[in-house]
Specification:
It is a multi-pass membrane protein. Helix content is about 85%, strand content about 0%. The chain has about 260 residues and is mostly helical.
Length: about 260
């Protein structure tokens, strides 16, 4: 098992190295304005993003993204569990949620600009609202999928609503909730960039758009590289948190697979 795991990790590393080498070779000596050599991009990456650019653009972007994502997580899990556990809540909120989730998340940006104007509140609002729907749907599906036998047991032991929620529903819905959280994390990064391109004076998205407008293509590619690094790092951290929180689930899957 460990050998297979190390083999997969080695494959990931080898693929990444191969892509970087191919990029370096194919772009070497390029005189195109739009596709500068990788060496020029890396040079500008060090000059722009390692230092003031990190504090001026990356940290504000992460702060706004995590603020909106945290709001979406709290609201989405709460509403989703309520929908999954109660039929009248599902009938009350279901039509409105189905209507709003059908709208592309990026169309929330003009609405946010009208309501909040340019600035962090608009960006946090767009991220929070856009990211809440995948979490709501997955939390509701997880809560609704609890075995009826478990509900019978909670009634037999006279569990309170809080005990039923924390001792039965949340553990059973945990994998579905984390699936929604992971989907929303990628969406939060997208909405962060779009909102910054439209209504911000700093941030990764703002910097990338400004570089493109001024035809400083090396800076634009360096910004895209930073965005990819941020997304990859955030995803790795999330996977670590998920693995820690769902240790019982992964252990159960492993034991079932081995059996």
């Amino acid at each position: 098992m460990n050998g297979r795991k190390f083999g997969l990790v080695g494959l990931e590393i080898a693929t990444t190295v191969a892509v970087v080498i191919a990029w370096f070779v194919l772009s070497a000596g390029s005189t195109s304005l739009f596709f500068p050599p990788l060496t020029a991009i890396l040079e500008r990456f060090g000059e722009v993003w390692i230092g003031p650019g990190f504090t001026d653009h990356v940290l504000p972007s992460l702060g706004r993204m995590f603020a909106g994502y945290a709001i979406a997580a709290v609201v989405g899990i709460s509403v989703g569990l309520a929908i999954g556990m109660s039929s009248w809540v599902r009938r009350l909120l279901g039509p409105g949620i189905d209507f709003l989730r059908a709208l592309p998340a990026v169309v929330l940006v003009p609405f946010g600009l009208i309501v909040f104007g340019v600035g962090a509140p608009m960006q946090i609002f767009v991220i929070a609202l856009g990211c809440s729907f995948p979490i709501i749907l997955n939390a509701a599906a997880g809560a609704a999928s609890v075995e009826p036998l478990l509900h019978d047991v909670t009634r037999s032991f006279r569990f309170s609503t809080a005990e039923r929620l924390f001792r039965v529903v949340l553990p059973a819905a945990g994998p579905s909730i984390f699936a929604g959280l992971r989907a929303s994390l990628a969406l939060a990064l997208i909405l962060m960039v779009v909102a910054e391109m439209v209504g911000s004076t700093n941030g990764i998205g703002y910097s990338i758009l400004e570089s493109q407008r001024m035809f400083v293509m090396a800076d634009m590619w360096a910004g895209l590289l930073m965005l990819g690094i941020v997304g990859y790092t955030v995803n790795l951290i999330f996977l670590g948190v998920e693995r820690f929180a769902l240790q019982w689930h992964h252990g159960l899957k492993a034991s079932t697979r081995d059996a």
